[in-house]
Amino acid sequence: MVKEKVVLVNFWSSPFGSRVKIALEEKGIPYEYKEEDLFNKSSFLSTINPVHNKVPVLVHNQKPVCESLNILEYIDETWTDLSPRFLPSDPHQRALARFWADFIDKELYESSKKIYRGIGEEQVIGKNEVLRILKLVEGEIGDKPFFGGDNLGLVDITLIPFYSRFYTWETFGKFSIEEECPNLVAWAKRCLQKESVAKSLPDPIKIYEFILDLNKYFAK
């Protein structure tokens, strides 16, 4: 049997890369991790992702797969024999999971940047947009332990990496996500009890310090 070679090319602070790490860890797939310097991108990155030149990229047996949600589905469809499955078997539930994952993917990151890069009214708009998104998603979990039911699913893995940025959003925006979305924070704490999540997320303080440095970099 040919040995699988799996490589994850990523940057340590990327919530999108953390999604892939969680998925690989959840299924117990051995992989090699390659850190990419986003401020001095390698020629390797442009080779494996010539369209966007971004991380994360999963390289499976020398074949690259780009974009985090696409990678999550690729992992689920390639290693079908490994549990858990990230997408439900029911077509309607599968469509719903894809809808919410896509919603989080398109809305949350861009809105959150307004909180730590914006000032005045723009920052307030960013905070309100983030809270609107989080409350909508919070309403979807209902009384389930996870969005995926009893196990982490596509929506859980899509959202939980942003938990490492909650501290940054709260500090810049001067608000409490736990006060606004208590059920969502309780869900996040359940996720962190899983080793696959705990070992894949960067430290919130390091993220905060990195974003402070990033703001100084962009202010030059």
UniProtKB/TrEMBL annotation:
<protein>
    <recommendedName>
        <fullName>Glutathione S-transferase</fullName>
        <ecNumber>2.5.1.18</ecNumber>
    </recommendedName>
</protein>
<keyword id="KW-0808">Transferase</keyword>
<dbReference type="InterPro" id="IPR036249">
    <property type="entry name" value="Thioredoxin-like_sf"/>
</dbReference>
<dbReference type="Pfam" id="PF13410">
    <property type="entry name" value="GST_C_2"/>
</dbReference>
<dbReference type="InterPro" id="IPR045074">
    <property type="entry name" value="GST_C_Tau"/>
</dbReference>
<dbReference type="InterPro" id="IPR040079">
    <property type="entry name" value="Glutathione_S-Trfase"/>
</dbReference>
<keyword id="KW-0963">Cytoplasm</keyword>
<dbReference type="InterPro" id="IPR004045">
    <property type="entry name" value="Glutathione_S-Trfase_N"/>
</dbReference>
<dbReference type="InterPro" id="IPR036282">
    <property type="entry name" value="Glutathione-S-Trfase_C_sf"/>
</dbReference>
<comment type="similarity">
    <text>Belongs to the GST superfamily.</text>
</comment>
<dbReference type="GO" id="GO:0006749">
    <property type="term" value="P:glutathione metabolic process"/>
</dbReference>
<feature type="domain" description="GST C-terminal">
    <location>
        <begin position="90"/>
        <end position="218"/>
    </location>
</feature>
<dbReference type="InterPro" id="IPR010987">
    <property type="entry name" value="Glutathione-S-Trfase_C-like"/>
</dbReference>
<dbReference type="GO" id="GO:0004364">
    <property type="term" value="F:glutathione transferase activity"/>
</dbReference>
<dbReference type="Pfam" id="PF02798">
    <property type="entry name" value="GST_N"/>
</dbReference>
<comment type="function">
    <text>Is involved in the conjugation of reduced glutathione to a wide number of exogenous and endogenous hydrophobic electrophiles.</text>
</comment>
<dbReference type="GO" id="GO:0005829">
    <property type="term" value="C:cytosol"/>
</dbReference>
<feature type="domain" description="GST N-terminal">
    <location>
        <begin position="4"/>
        <end position="83"/>
    </location>
</feature>
<dbReference type="InterPro" id="IPR045073">
    <property type="entry name" value="Omega/Tau-like"/>
</dbReference>
